[in-house]
Amino acid sequence: MSFDKTMASAAEAVADIHHGASLAVGGFGLSGNPIQLIEALLEQGASDLSVVSNNCGVDGWGLGVLLAAERITKMTSSYVGENREFARQYLEGELELELVPQGTLAEKMHAGGAGIPGFYTRTGVGTQVADGGIPVRYDAAGNVVEESAPKEVRRFRTHEGEELEYVLEESIVTDYSLVHALRGDRHGNLVFNKSARQFSPAAAMSGRVCIAQVEELVEPGQIDPDQVHLPGVFVHRIVEVGSEIDKPIERRTVTTTESAEQA
Predict the structure, then answer these.
(1) Upper half-sphere CA count for residue 5 (Cβ side, 13 Å)
(2) Contact by Cβ (8 Å): 43, 204
(3) Which single residue of 24, 170, 202, 246 has CA 20 to 30 Å from 75?
(4) Residue 191 and residue 32: Cα distance in Å, rounded?
(5) Is the per-residue pLDDT at 261 higher than 60?
(6) Which of 92, 91, 55, 94 is nearest to 71 (CA)?
């Protein structure tokens, strides 16, 4: 068995993703979006996709391109702003949405990759996250036709001796995962860049087949083992996309400094 997991192209890497597949997609906002894999999947044609990701990109970028092509039927996310088409499809009954608190979403994917079926957390206790009632699907007239169900809540004694309520969250395992990394080797060991580490390692772990695009592909041994953010055991395919790719951000904020004003 070869440990070389490299693929010739993004198109080859996503060729077997089937209609109705579930995907975990890395990135935080637009940071670390695996856009080359997403665009290859758009060209490939798979539809009826269930996607787990922190957000759904923006109009015309990231997962937003799959959404605009009506390839996604369900999103599991923690943030759904910055995308007008997302709001339209959700409110007009074309898209199912499962809202999950941000840290909980990351842990649900991490737990799935670690083989843990579920965990209890304080996050969401006393809200619709635990009690149910969050709109999951609307109809075309704007009426709620499906709501989130109540979740199991149990009391646990803390180390300080206080009894508190915790809600049970089930882990997430998907058919595939798509992630972007700064660097990777042919064995699949990955190094992520800054805020892309927020969701990408967890998303990668939760996919039964993990596909990674990297800006730089190196030989095994060139990455210091202490610098590896995700071991290659979780990665099944890797494709080099180069560093000259577009890396947009949602909003650019510029502050005028005193030296700039004097100039």
Answers:
(1) 25
(2) no
(3) 246
(4) 12
(5) no
(6) 94
Distance CA 246, CA 2 (A): 32
Decide if 72 is inside a domain: yes
Please say whether the beta carbons of 35 and 14 come within 8 A. Answer: no
The boundaries of the domain holding residue 50 are 10-117+172-240
Q: Is residue 154 part of a domain?
A: no
**Average pLDDT, integer, range 53-74:** 93
| Residue 198 · residue 230 · CB < 8 Å | no
pLDDT, tens digit (0-9, with 9 covering 90-100), for 163-190: 999 999 999 999 999 999 999 999 999 9
Residue 149 predicted with pLDDT over 70: yes
pTM for this entry: 0.91
Whether residue 76 is contained in a domain is answered as: yes
**To the nearest whole number, what is the mean pLDDT of the chain?**
93
The CA distance from 88 to 147, in Å, is 18
3-state class (DSSP) for residue 212:
strand
Query: Domain containing 75 — which CATH number?
Result: 3.40.1080.10
On whether residue 28 sits in a domain, the answer given is yes
Task: Give the list of residues 6+ apart from residue 46 with CB closer than 8 angstroms, or none.
Answer: 14, 17, 18, 19, 21, 71
> Which residues, including other chains, have CB under 8 Å from residue 118's CB and lie 6 or more apart?
111, 168, 169, 170, 171
Q: Which residues contact 122 (CB under 8 A, 6 or more apart)?
A: 164, 165, 166, 167
- Stretch among 19-23, 28-32, 136-140, 157-161 having the lowest mean pLDDT: 28-32
Domain count, the chain: 1
**The Cα angle at residue 89 between residues 88 and 90, in degrees rounded to 5:** 95
Mean pLDDT of 60-70: 93
